[in-house]
Amino acid sequence: MALDDMKNLQSTDSLADDSDDAVSHEEWLSFSLDTITYAVDILRVREIRTWQTMTRVPYAKDYVVGLINLRGAIVPIVDLRARFGLSRREADKETIVLIMSVMTEDGEKTMGIVVDRISDVINLNTDSIESAEKFDLTISNRFVRGITDVKGGMAVLLEIDAVLDIADF
Fold first, then answer.
1. pLDDT tens digits along 35-78
2. What is the residue extent of each domain of the chain?
């Protein structure tokens, strides 16, 4: 084999190795609602914002908190506590709004979720994600990608497209 052919082979091999690594590792942003830790794919998080007053939408579902104007775009905000059937909680200094990129039948949309507090970025090997069907969760299995161990506790990994499915609104 010529030296150039060997170099090309080596670079192709390293690309294949890199793509395997990219597939097997994911980053998730964890947060809490009450005493439960949840996480969303960090690549779907567009912005992290502190709580702000929102414009209420008449006749909206009870989990739709309202709308905010985000640099000229109107963004609906969903209270995850209400969406998951948890008791309401007054917003405080730890209350966070995560602005998310959501895939819908009509394409990509920007929506927000209200969480009690933000926790950490979790680096996961995809092999460490357990099926949610083994666990008796208080939320619908269609909202859950899986469950993983985080610092001795468990985190519920959310399917944010299902959680924010606008057909449910």
1. 999 999 999 999 999 999 999 999 999 999 999 999 999 999 99
2. 27-168
Cα–Cα distances in Å, from 113 out to 34, 68, 80? 15, 12, 6
Burial of 138 per CB tally in 10 Å (0-12, 13-18, 19+)? exposed
The gap from C-alpha 17 to its chain's centroid, in whole angstroms, comes to 27
Q: pLDDT tens-digit profile of 111-166?
A: 999 999 999 999 988 877 877 666 666 788 889 999 888 888 899 999 999 999 97
The torsion defined by the Cα of 84, 86, 92 and 95, in degrees rounded to 10, comes to -20
Fold of 27-168: OB fold (Dihydrolipoamide Acetyltransferase, E2P) (2.40.50)
